[in-house]
Amino acid sequence: MFQQFFLAEHRSVLGNVADGLLYAGVRPTGNLDSGTGTTILALLEELNTHGTTIIVITHDQAIAGRMRRRIEMLDGRIIADTRPAAVPRAPAGGPGQEGRS
């Protein structure tokens, strides 16, 4: 618990509030209504498709099931690592170049 109240100058108001919630052990997005939760997950999925790495920590199996890769932990150890299937690469020379010399 903080004894004095200070704001981090480089953070937004929302960022300052979220930091305090995290230090207090609250997950700030953990109690969203289902509609807002669905919207947030869609936003995270969209950011991920554009190349942003997203880390979601959850106990909710429905949320975990939507993730492309899941790393499951038990007692501080990784017990499962589900990676997405590899995307096949085009042959050298690009599409339509097979068999040409």
List keywords for this structure.
single chain; 101 residues; alpha+beta; 2 domains; two-stranded antiparallel ribbon; 3 helices; 2 strands; 32% helix; 11% strand
Largest sheet: 2 strands, antiparallel
- Cα(first) to Cα(last) distance is 70 Å
Return residue spans where pLDDT drops below 50 for at least 5 consecutive residues: none
- What is the overall shape? extended
The helix-strand sequence is HHHEE
Domain module tally: 2
Number of helical regions: 3
The level of helicity is 25-40%
Enumerate the strands of the largest sheet in spatial order, edge to edge or round the barrel. Answer: 1-2
Q: Total number of β-strand segments?
A: 2
Oligomeric status: single chain
Q: Structural class, from secondary structure content?
A: alpha+beta
Walk me through the structure:
It is a single chain. Helix content is 32%, strand content 11%. It has helices at residues 13-23, 34-49, 61-65, and strands spanning 70-74, 77-82. The chain folds into two domains: 1-31, no CATH class; 33-85, no CATH class. It starts with 12 loop residues before the first helix and ends in a 19-residue tail after the last strand. Strand 1 and strand 2 form a beta hairpin. A two-stranded antiparallel sheet has the order 1-2. It contains three helices and two strands; from the N terminus they run H-H-H-E-E. It is of the alpha+beta class.
